[in-house]
Write a structure and sequence with these properties.
Blueprint lengths: L1 E7 L3 E8 L4 E9 L7 E5 L5 E5 L5 H13 L12 E8 L10 E2 L2 H9 L8 H14 L5 E5 L9 H4 L5 H7 L8 H15 L7 E7 L3 E7 L2 E5 L20 H9 L5 H4 L16 H10 L2 H6 L6 H9 L3 H25 L4 E5 H6 L1 H8 L11 H4 L7 E2 L8 E4 L4 H13 L1
Parallel strand pairs: 1-6, 6-8, 9-12, 12-14
Antiparallel strand pairs: 1-2, 2-3, 3-4, 4-5, 7-8, 9-10, 10-11, 13-14
Helix pairs in contact: 1-3, 11-12, 12-14
């Protein structure tokens, strides 16, 4: 079965064409800058090289059409007929408490996604646009949804509740949901399989460290806690997100009326930019979600760990501070989750930074020998993007790097639903 996997953002469409049950990634690509004059599609050609094609893509429907046109193109395509695509799998960010697993998408599912928009105002509208666009173009194909939040629906009540008035949960769904579920699910299974350790009787911590970052405690195959909360803003220091922060900081930022207008201009998009001395709610959200994290601390105009590490090598103190804040936060969560699990068998690093930065992995584990975590630097150093055991033979906790594959999880869930 050939499955088209779509991951839709507000101005982008990532796609993969995957064949199952014999797992084969036929091609990957992305449509970017939808709705702008600079829109384009980047495709992977049959020879493995990549090429960009500037194309007018005014909306997501046209984006899906362009993807199919390129898949069918005689020079850069990979299929001869649309009929070769048997199903479409969609990455969906927020399913609230309703969805604890993957689903075949129908009108009721879309209606529920719309109800969850207040919980994920940046992600769910884009996901819904992607579904509707794909349904218009591929109306005769089954469409399946795989939720980032589903894996974490096993969290106990004391872990997912906030200590707020209970009616806010009961009436408005204010609670912790967690994200990156497909990644945490995938790498935890793969780590146990890689090590030959039974998954259903293991204590595992998975650290998904990328531009977005989260860490999850998994006991006997079930998520019992995770660092992201009601939104992806909670938890670890991330590329552009602050992570855990005192709620009083938000109140301070909103109440302050004497900012230098130049100081806050980066967070304002309205006409009074450069003159206003007070921030509004959405602008504080922009500050916390898009201008903070590594980006905000390092002050080099980038949140990319490669740029951060380059700055460290050049003696930039703020880039070192940014990295130290990230790794310290990860280390604190590892300790906390080892306590929540009552011990630890496996620690997993994954995602862009977790898979590729030996320095970050090393710093996250430094000083955790008392927990039984001992890194073998001769293996860890230089390791990038490959599955490997990086702990010493005598380490009580097995520390592994496992490359994540969320697209496979989406395709596989789609395949299982339709088989």
């Amino acid at each position: 079965m050939k499955i088209l996997v779509l991951n839709c953002g507000s101005s982008s469409l990532k796609y993969s064409l995957i064949e199952l049950p014999e797992y084969k990634v036929i091609t990957v690509g992305i449509v970017e800058r939808v709705g702008t004059a600079e829109s384009f599609i980047k495709v992977q050609k049959p020879d493995g090289t990549k090429e960009e094609f500037p194309t007018a893509i005014p909306d997501h429907t046209r984006g899906v059409e362009v993807i199919l046109e390129k898949l069918l193109d005689l020079e850069v395509g990979h299929i001869r007929s649309i009929d070769e695509i048997e199903a479409v799998g969609h990455r969906l960010v927020h399913g609230g408490e309703v969805f604890s697993g993957s689903v075949i998408i129908d009108d009721k599912v879309i209606a529920q996604l719309e109800k969850c928009i207040p919980l994920a105002p940046l992600h769910n509208p884009a996901n819904i646009m992607g579904i509707r666009a794909a349904q218009r173009v591929l109306s005769d194909k089954p469409h399946c949804g795989v939720f980032d939040t589903a894996f974490h629906q096993t969290m106990p009540e004391h872990a997912y509740m906030y200590a707020l008035p209970y009616h806010l949960y009961k009436n408005h769904g204010v609670r912790r949901y967690g994200f990156h579920g497909t990644s945490h699910d995938y790498v935890s299974h793969k780590a146990a399989e890689f090590l030959g350790i039974p998954y259903e009787s293991s204590k595992i911590i998975t650290a998904h460290i990328g531009s977005g970052a989260s860490i999850t405690a998994i006991k006997d195959g079930k998520s019992i806690d995770t660092s992201m909360g009601m939104t992806p803003a909670e938890g670890l220091v991330m590329g552009t997100r602050a992570g855990d922060i005192d709620s009083g900081v938000v109140e301070f930022l909103l109440d302050k009326t004497d900012f230098d207008p130049a100081e806050i201009a980066d967070y304002i998009t309205t006409e009074d930019k450069g003159t206003r001395s007070q921030l509004k709610v959405k602008e504080v959200s922009t500050l916390l979600n898009k201008k903070s994290g590594l980006y905000g601390v390092a002050c080099i105009g980038s949140s990319d760990m490669r740029d951060i590490e380059k700055g460290i090598n050049e003696g930039n103190k703020l880039t070192k501070l940014a990295k130290d804040m990230l790794t310290y936060r990860v280390k604190k969560y590892i300790g906390a989750y080892a306590a929540a699990l009552g011990g630890l068998d496996i620690l997993v690093f994954t995602a862009g930074v977790g898979e590729n930065s030996d320095a970050v992995r090393s710093a996250c584990c430094q000083g955790l020998e008392f927990l039984g975590i001992e890194i073998d630097e001769s293996v860890n150093t230089g390791l990038r993007g490959k599955a490997a055991l990086i702990s010493k033979p005598e380490s009580r906790v097995k520390v592994v790097v496992i490359p994540t594959d969320e697209e496979y999880m989406i395709a596989n869930e789609t395949y299982k639903l339709l088989s």
